[in-house]
Every structure is written in structure tokens, then in C-alpha cells.
Amino acid sequence: MPPVKRKQSAGTAKLRSSVDPLLAALAARDSRPDSAGEATRRRILEHASAIASRSGLEGLTVGELAKQLKISKSGLFAHFGSKEELQLAVVQHASRRFVDEIVRPALEHDRGLPRLRAMVEFWLGYVERNVFPGGCFFAAASLEFDGRAGPVRDHVAEVTAWWFDAVAGEVAESRRRGQLQAADPDLLAFRLHGYVQEANWGYQMFRDDRWFVRARAAIDDAIRQASTEITASRP
Amino acid sequence: MPPVKRKQSAGTAKLRSSVDPLLAALAARDSRPDSAGEATRRRILEHASAIASRSGLEGLTVGELAKQLKISKSGLFAHFGSKEELQLAVVQHASRRFVDEIVRPALEHDRGLPRLRAMVEFWLGYVERNVFPGGCFFAAASLEFDGRAGPVRDHVAEVTAWWFDAVAGEVAESRRRGQLQAADPDLLAFRLHGYVQEANWGYQMFRDDRWFVRARAAIDDAIRQASTEITASRP
DNA sequence: ATAAAATACGAACGATCGTTCTATTTGTCA
DNA sequence: TGACAAATAGAACGATCGTTCGTATTTTAT
Predict the structure, then answer these.
(1) What pTM, to 2 d.p., does this model score?
(2) Measuring CA to CA, which residue among A159, A195, A53 is closest to residue A151?
């Protein structure tokens, strides 16, 4: 008999209303019993998210995935009721990786400017470190699914929107603390967010580390320009 | 008998060595006889590029394309020897659209700062105008194919690299003319290029026009910051 | 140790993928 | 108008897609 089909516990609502938006992301982590099937399920998702970051969530096929993992197609399929649920699980898995690699470490920095810097730098680092072989998972997934409809698209949109808002929120917090005099929080967030995405794009396309150099220079400039502290050119 | 199979006349080499890099792109336009088959071929590519911008070049299937165009699968297929050649033709078609919509109009502006502004603004406008229903064709195609190998990826990489270099080249030209005091041409190009891509991403994902507002504000800021002219706040 | 429940497998389904034939229609030029 | 080529259609191919089902095997609990 196939494994019990677990229902999606979305864990979506009201992340922004929290005092510390990043913290809410941590609470959403599901800790399921460490049964035998759960282990292979994780192994599947680990490999699947790697494939999906390179070939897309649609290019990820059940047969190919099973072949690479050396398990039967039906055995694999039993863990997910359908391809769409597999895709959803992959997106969810990628979200957890994103939290582990970026959100959690950033939480160890003080709110305001230090955390803002950490968020952007960790994000850039996760691209640079090739956490996913195809670069930022959500950059790929969002551009692949932006034209479609359905729960996968919605989930990707939710995560990416949340992250952009988190960056913008930290810009706003920095201003509240007098660390930034940024005019429009969303505009600075737009810049920073765009620099990382541009670096991801350029690096994936041309495999040249200079894209990260440029991104860091642009990020520093943008923050310094909006900063009240005089951080440079003091003898 | 199927139509003659035309061989790819790449038209790639030494675009940058030209005096006016943008002009070289115009020369590459192929003007084929306007036979009956050529008309349907164009009709196919027109529709195919629209589909590809939304569903990706891999999501573009021969059967679905034929069905939507109300022609037979084999009749369609006769125009292209293989799916890969179809994809290549679609990329080539999209390149022509890009030239028509952005490069050609930008050429009507003086070299240097005016043309730089035109290039970026026309590019942004082509996203805003939904020239392709899925947004910038090359943003989608490059992120879809960055992980693979083969002629399609190479073609996309070539076009996108050329365009980035064209932007950077115009920044450099602006500096030569004393219109910009930008430190690193590639860095300003990185910013401008990133803003448009970020706007494309945000607009495709969330269908909100504010992304264009933010992009234009960021673009203006970046150029003004690097500009020697005092363009603002003069009574 | 044994029963029950949880996992995995192998074989097969219909649908669609890209592709290849051969035949038929359409257009062009003598 | 007739000959010939260009252009489209139709039917079928093997491969692979996502999916289902019945059965074996393992893991877990008693």
C-alpha cells in the first residue's frame, strides 16, 4: 500500500504582521517523524530540487528522476500523488533550503542595517556557492511559472513576494532606526533585489565571477548612498 | 516535398569591433523571397515565439503549436527539420523583434547619453507593452537554457551578451563624450541592465505596474548620479 | 516472532512527444 | 493547359510522458 498522502499544510498566512517577519518563516518548518519512507522522500526531494534548478520544474520528469536515484518509477511516485504534488513538494523543499541558507543566518544579525546587509550578502553567497546547481531556485522557478496558473505558481509567487517584502521591511526598519535615510524603502529593496538577481542571471549564463564583484560593488554603493553614516574616505 | 532546408547564416562575428555596434545588428537581417511557404513560416514563428515566452522553448511542443495554428503537425514540421531547428528559428525570430522594437529606434538617438537612455527605456517599454506575452523573451530563454548545452543555449548567450555589451559600450561612449563620469562602465551597465530585468521579473510575477515606476526611478538615479550635468533641483 | 502497516516494485495503460514516411493539394512557369 | 515543384496533409512509428494497479518486500509495533 502506498504511503499515506499528507495534505499540504501551507503555513502561509500573515507573515508580515509578525513583529519579526523573518522569525515567522522558521516556525513554518515541518518536522515529520523520521520513518524509513521519510528518509527516501527527502533524498528524492534533494535530488529533484537540484534537477529542477537546472532543467526547470517542468523538465523534471518522474522517469528520469527515478532512473538517477536508482529506484522504481512507481516506488518514487507513491510518495507524491501526482506530478503537481511532486513539484509542490520540491518548491517547499527549496523554501526550507532558502530559510536554512539565508534567513536563519541573517537572523543572527541585529535588526536594521546589519541584518539587511546580511540578508543580501547571504543570498548572493548562496548563489555563488552553487547551493543549487542551476543558481537561485526561485529565480528559475518564478520565471518558468510566471505565465501559468495553479498552486505551483501561487506557491512560488508567495515565497518570492515574501522575500522581497522582507528585504523592503528591513530597509524600513533601518530607516526607523536612523541607519538609513532611504527615501522609498521599496525602491532601495528594488535595487538590492535586482542586483542579486542580475548577478545570478549573469553568472548562470556566462559562468564568470565578475558578476558577483559587480553586484557587491553595486550593493555597497546603494547602501552607502542611502546611509547616514560616513563609512568611506575618512583618513 | 518539404521546403528547402536553409542553413543557419549565423551572422555572429565581430559585432563589437564595428564603429557603431548597434548598426551591425541591422545588417544581419535576412530578407527571404516572399513565397507562400515563407508567409506561413513567419506565421508559425510569430505564434511560436509568443508561446515560448510564456511556456518556455521546451514547453513549446509541435503538436500544440500545430493545433493552435490549425495546420497539420507534419506540415508545420516540414518547415524545420527538427525541434531544435525550430527553437533556433524562434530565437532568431525573437532577435529580429528585439532589433525592431529596441535597437532600431535607439539608433535614431545621438550616440552617448541620449542613446543610452533610449536603449534602456525602449527595452523597458517593450516589456511594459507586452510585445511578448511572457515578458522579455531573452530573460525567459536565458534562464531556461543556462543549465544546458547546445546551439540554442549558445545563440541565446550570444544575443544577451551582445546586448549587455552594447549597453556597457554606450556607457563608455558617454564617458568619452564627457556626459558621464561613471567609474566603471560595466558597473553602470550592470545596474541599468539589472533594473530592467528586475522590473520584468516583478511585472511577470505580480502583474503590477509599480515595477516599471521603480525601474525608471532607479534608472534615472543611476544615470544622474554618474552624470556631470546638473539636471535636478535648479530653481 | 508474528501480524499489521508501510514501502517499494514490475507491468501495463492511454496520451503525447518528436519524427518519418507517402500521398495529395496548391501554386508557378512553359 | 499541362508539367513540375513547392507546400500541406494524413497515418503511423518508437519513445517517453504521467498514472494506476496488483503484488512483493521491508519496516514497525505487539
Answers:
(1) 0.89
(2) A159
Paired residues of A227 in beta bridges: A180
Contact at 8 Å (CB) between A27 and A110? no
State the DSSP code for B114: H
Does the CA dihedral B225-B230-B232-B234 come out positive or negative? positive
Distance A108 CA to D15 C1' (A): 52
pLDDT tens digits, one per residue of A106-129: 999 999 999 999 999 999 999 999
Distance CA B135, CA B190 (A): 20
Neighbours of A107 (CB within 10 A): 17
Distances in whole angstroms, Cα of residue B220 to Cα of each of B16, B79, B120, B125: 26, 45, 11, 15
From B135, B203, B54, select the one nearest A58 (Cα to Cα). Answer: B54
- Asked if residue B188 lies in contact with residue B226, where contact means CB atoms within 8 angstroms, the answer is yes
* Shortest distance, CA A219 to any CA of chain B (angstroms): 10
Give percent helix, percent strand, percent coil of chain B, each to the nearest 5: 70, 0, 30
DSSP A102: I
Phi and psi of A215, rounded to 5°?
-60, -45
Q: Is the CB of B103 under 7 A from strand D?
A: no
Instruction: List A180's β-bridge partners, or say none.
Output: A227
In this complex, is the C-beta atom of B55 within 8 Å of any C-beta atom belonging to chain A?
Answer: yes
> Cα-flanking dihedrals φ and ψ of residue B184, to 5°?
-115, 115
Q: What are the pLDDT digits (tens) for B116-128? A: 999 999 999 999 9
Statement: the CB of B3 is under 7 Å from strand D: yes
